[in-house]
Amino acid sequence: MTLSKAGELRDCGFTLIELLVVCSLLAALSYIAWGAYTGVQERAEDDIARAEMLRLADALKRFRADTGYYPGQGPFALAAPGTVETASGDGYTCDPVGGVRRSWAAPAVDADKDAWFASPANLALLFAAPALCANHPLAYLERWQPASGRGWHGPYLDISARAWVDHGNDFNADRNGTLNGAPDGDGNPVAGNKIVDIPAFGNGPRFTAVGPAWQPCAEQAHSTPGATCMLGWRSVPRQATGYAAMRHELPAHARPFVVFGLADNDAPRLVYFGRDGRYGGRNAADPCLPNLPDPDGADDQVLCLNR
């Protein structure tokens, strides 16, 4: 306690205004610090995604170096719908002559095999050896030929990096011009009929499962009545022995790393569709760049294989 000139007693301490100023300064500093931390975290996620894209690009290039083709090209394209397979020696001949036997594609229903095989997230040919039609002139490429140094010599990606992703079939619009229209880049992974159990590259930053209109989903089990999650992951395919939705559905996993332009040779490229989980579409001027100023493409990363 001190005595003022006016003779009045005055308490030592801070005034209310001084306390408010200090609190405001602390709040501002906290906001700046959190923003800086968030920025660092986002840049770290982008760096991780870029590193994984380079690993996937290397796998695709090694596949091509060994076989002469990218997945989905030449003998590694799926045989036509309705193909009849007949046992022949240690393989199966196809009528009409095709590339990858349709029985190799995972869906049980023949009509579902094309969309599954053509998914831009489908990297099955990098994880598992293909089964080619025995009467195809390049059928020998289904296995490694030491004498010629040609053929499938995988797996090209570590099996531990494989997970199974679902997405809407509208996403296929940017993968294969013969299946769902020209590769105009408007494919939407959460629209259209659901394509399930696509073997994809599951490394990278995490995201939550989403459904139509991009609403978050608590679960994405295909077999659950009313389940609407279109873009979600599982650790094993639904058909696997012992599969249980509660144990194998993944509420959060890597945003898909997708491959566009292989089948139609339209600037073969990898795309990671960013922290927002949305695909901004194909850049009409240069497919090797993100689609800007589209807001969904602002955080996309694109890596062309031929540059």
- Number of helical elements: 5
Question: What spatial form do the alpha-carbon principal axes imply?
Answer: elongated
Mean pLDDT: 84
Radius of gyration over alpha carbons? 26 Å
Detailed description of the structure:
By secondary structure, the chain is α+β, with helices and mostly antiparallel strands. The protein has a domain at 40-67 and 115-133 and 155-304. The chain is 23% helix and 17% strand. The chain has 5 helices and 13 strands. The chain has helices at residues 16-67, 110-117, 124-127, 177-180, 245-248, and strands at 2-3, 9-10, 84-88, 91-95, 162-168, 194-201, 206-208, 232-234, 249-250, 252-254, 257-260, 269-272, 301-304. It has a 4-stranded antiparallel beta sheet. Strands 11-12-13 form a 3-stranded antiparallel beta sheet, with helices on one face. The chain is elongated. The model has no long low-confidence stretch (mean pLDDT 84).
Outline of this structure?
It contains five helices and 13 strands. With 307 residues, it is α+β, with helices and mostly antiparallel strands.
Summarize this structure as a short list of keywords or feature phrases:
307 residues; alpha+beta; four-stranded antiparallel beta sheet; three-stranded antiparallel beta sheet; 5 helices; 23% helix
